[in-house]
Write a structure and sequence with these properties.
The chain is α/β, with parallel strands linked by helices and 561 residues long. It has 23 helices and 20 strands. The strands form 4 sheets. It has a 6-stranded parallel beta sheet with strand order 3-2-4-5-7-6, sandwiched between helices. It is globular and about 70 Å long. The mean pLDDT is 96.
């Protein structure tokens, strides 16, 4: 146990961050966290000033997801802390390691309705993996160490540490606490044997791959498993990038807006191997009919997910980095599924995406496919939420999960721009593109100032149909075309607005402008906004209607407006 000099609690906070390899924090100062900001001044930990606490937390989420490290954000008490709540919920549902440190009023006035006092500990309980309030200066350092451990261990998630102002200014002797040694969760041999028997017996096995693979650092192990077994695969929104986009048998995303081949193959399989996924309703459609003829082998680090929505024939709660190689070894040369592989090839060919869209209008799926093909190897795409998000998932491809940032579980509009900022800070040499819609972009538009201040070369591809597109699509399909509050025809001039933040840009309206404009955006040394005007008649297809089976996909409609 290291024993050091005496210091304020605020100084100890910064020292703990540095000890955990934190080089950048995102935040916004205020009264109750001023001692920590004072300690930050001149420290080796860089601070990036966001222009809203939600933007700070989403930047920390983007930093964590693009780097695999734990993101850190700061906020003051009261409104500063409450502004973090949406981002904490987003991090919880997408299992992102995050430590949020908030200032709090002094312990002597807690409970008196003091200025900017709010029970953020109580508010955060439902949207964090764990929450702490430090009321004893001697517990400050151990609590912070515990917060980092909880955030990154097992199934990752956000942890809140609320620190009253008097604790920040109190003096302590810095001591590095004893730390627990994490033991990797091993699978029971009997479970591995049972899982291997299911795989050997299957004639039509299918891998259903989720975000847990990337978080477990098991991408290489999964790809080796696929190479050895030849078992075909699909991925969730968060699982994209885990499987090489050109891997034989890979059919892309499944679910509500998944590809037809992906959904139909899962419906036909006789063994569903679920790897780091959780049977989310946007994946399964009507749960009772999801892969209803298949046995289930479920692999996940979080035992709470096993049997939660679908009872597995074999369930293994263990590290995927250990389970996948063990299963691959157990079934070597025992997987004989050639007829099924031919069926998969036929389905992929029959239902491949059609990018032939004649006419002058810009077809977003085709544009995004071209963007994916143009991006350099070290690149990150950060999405907002809506039709453009689904088009990105359907038509772009990613080299690894860290290259695709999307608010999957919570579906938070306003995620894309601040998450891209965090990704750019985490990977300064990467080409970072945020793909946003005209609705989502306005949710955290103030973060353009953060780009300007830090001179970040974030590229913004703004898909503008002057509608809340996904909501409009549902109104069109399921609410008798009653378009309530989805018209955005009074949008600002986005390129002019970007120029106020010293961000150059251009608007395109025709298909023959796409190629040159994408090149200009990618090759511009600093930030750039490409504003793309599309027709609001374009919808996202296919679509599994609510309550329907994944085999009951809608893929067109006669009336588009």
């Amino acid at each position: 146990m290291e024993v050091g000099q005496k210091m304020r609690g605020a100084d100890a906070v910064i020292k703990v961050l540095a000890a955990h390899g934190v080089t950048t924090v995102f935040g916004y100062p205020g009264g109750a966290i001023m001692p920590i900001y004072d300690a930050l001044y001149g420290s080796p930990v860089e601070h990036l000033l966001s222009r809203h606490e939600q933007g700070a937390a989403f930047a920390a989420v983007g930093y964590a997801r693009a780097s695999g490290k734990t993101g850190v954000c700061f906020a003051t008490s009261g409104p500063g802390a409450t502004n973090l709540i949406t981002s904490l919920a987003d991090a919880l549902l997408d299992s992102v390691p995050l430590v949020a440190i908030t200032g709090q009023v002094s312990t002597s006035v807690i409970g008196t309705d003091a200025f900017q006092e709010i029970d953020v500990l109580g508010m955060s309980l439902s949207c964090t993996k764990h929450s702490f309030m430090v009321t004893d200066i001697n517990e400050l350092i151990p609590t912070l160490y515990r917060a980092f451990e909880i955030a990154a261990s097992g199934r990752p998630g956000p942890v809140l540490v609320d620190i009253p102002k008097d604790i920040q200014i109190a003096e302590l002797e810095y001591k590095t606490p004893l730390q627990s040694v994490e033991v990797e969760l091993q699978a029971e041999q009997a479970d591995l044997d049972a899982g291997a028997e299911l795989i050997k017996a299957a004639k039509k096995p299918m891998l259903y791959v989720g975000g847990g693979v990337g978080m477990a650092g098991a991408v290489g192990h999964l790809r080796q498993f696929i190479a050895q077994t030849k078992i075909p695969s699909v991925a969730t929104l968060k699982g994209l990038g885990s499987i090489a986009h050109d891997a034989p048998g890979y059919l892309g995303m499944l679910g509500m807006h998944g590809g037809k081949a992906a959904n139909l193959a899962v419906q036909e399989c006789d063994l569903l191997i679920v790897v780091g996924a959780r049977f989310d309703d946007r994946v399964t459609g009507r749960l009772a009919s999801f892969a209803s003829n298949a046995k289930v082998l479920h692999l996940d680090i979080d035992a709470a997910e096993l049997g939660k929505l679908r009872q597995a024939d074999v369930a293994i709660a263990a590290e995927l980095r250990l389970v996948l190689p063990a299963l691959a070894e157990a079934v070597v040369d025992a997987v004989h599924i050639q007829p099924w592989l031919q069926d998969i090839t036929d389905m992929a060919r029959q239902y491949k995406w059609d990018y032939n869209h004649p006419g002058e209008l810009i077809f977003a799926p085709s544009m995004l496919r071209r963007l994916a093909n143009k991006l350099p190897e070290d690149s990150v795409v950060s999405c907002d939420v809506g039709q453009h998000q689904m088009w990105v998932a359907q038509h772009m491809w990613f080299r690894r999960p860290e290259d695709h940032l999307s608010s999957a579980g919570l579906g938070t509009m306003g995620f894309g721009l601040p998450a891209a900022i965090g990704a750019q800070v985490a990977r300064p040499n990467a080409t970072v593109v945020t793909v946003s819609g005209d609705g989502s972009f306005m949710m955290n538009v103030q973060e353009l100032t953060t780009i300007k201040r830090r001179k970040l070369p974030v590229k913004i591809l703004l898909v503008d149909n002057q509608k809340l597109g996904m909501v409009k699509q549902w109104q069109q399909l399921f609410f008798e075309e009653r378009y309530s509050e989805t018209d955005l025809s009074d949008n600002p001039n986005f390129v002019l607005m970007a120029s106020a933040f010293d961000i150059p840009g251009r608007t395109i309206t025709r298909a023959d402008q796409v190629e040159e404009a994408l090149d200009e955006m990618i090759n511009t040394p600093g930030p750039f906004m490409l504003h793309v005007s599309i027709d609001d008649a374009f919808n996202v297809w296919p679509l599994v209607p609510p309550g329907a089976s994944n085999s009951e996909m809608m893929d067109q409609m006669e009336k588009q407006t």
